Automatic annotation (TrEMBL):
PANTHER family on file: NUCLEOID-ASSOCIATED PROTEIN YBAB
Entries under InterPro entries matching the protein: YbaB-like_sf, YbaB/EbfC
Protein name in the entry: YbaB/EbfC family nucleoid-associated protein
Positions in coiled-coil regions: 2-43
SUPFAM superfamilies assigned to the protein according to its UniProt record, in alphabetical order: YbaB-like
Any one GO MF annotation of this record: DNA binding
Keywords of the record: Coiled coil, DNA-binding
Superkingdom of this protein's organism: Bacteria
Any Pfam family the entry gives: YbaB_DNA_bd
């Protein structure tokens, strides 16, 4: 019977390690997410990072002749919102099936959910009288 327990514990540990690897891969992917968007017929371009913060704003030189200050401000906001929506969608897609809804937007470090080795695995083995492999 103990051999069956050992096999089951080993299987659970293997499943745990696979999920942990998947979460680490997802975390790495999340850290690199960014998006770009345009407005005002391409005369305004913005880039945002994974948290939706502006990292770049570019204006076509013609924008100053074609848009007033209010229109330019609206174009920047429009492009920013579009890029932020793209980032949110990329994050939802990357996390689908591995993390609770809204975890990406909160900035939670998902890798901390699953430490490299579960703290209680040795205690379980000890209670069952199974030596670690």
């Amino acid at each position: 019977m103990r051999a069956e327990w050992q096999a089951h514990i080993d299987e659970l540990l293997q499943t745990y390690q696979e999920k942990r690897r998947q979460i680490q891969d997802m975390q790495t992917k999340l850290e690199t997410i960014e998006a770009e968007a345009e407005a005002a017929e391409g005369m305004v371009k913005v880039k945002v990072d994974r948290q939706g913060r502006l990292t770049s704003v570019e204006f076509d030189p013609r924008v100053y002749r074609r848009l007033g200050s209010e229109e330019l401000a609206e174009a920047v906001l429009e492009a920013s919102k579009d890029a932020q929506s793209q980032v949110a969608e990329q994050m939802r897609a990357a996390m689908q099936g591995l993390a609770p809804e809204g975890a990406a937007e909160s900035g939670f470090d998902l890798a901390k959910l699953l430490p490299e080795r579960p703290d209680d695995i040795d205690a379980v083995r000890e209670r069952l009288g199974i030596l670690p492999r």
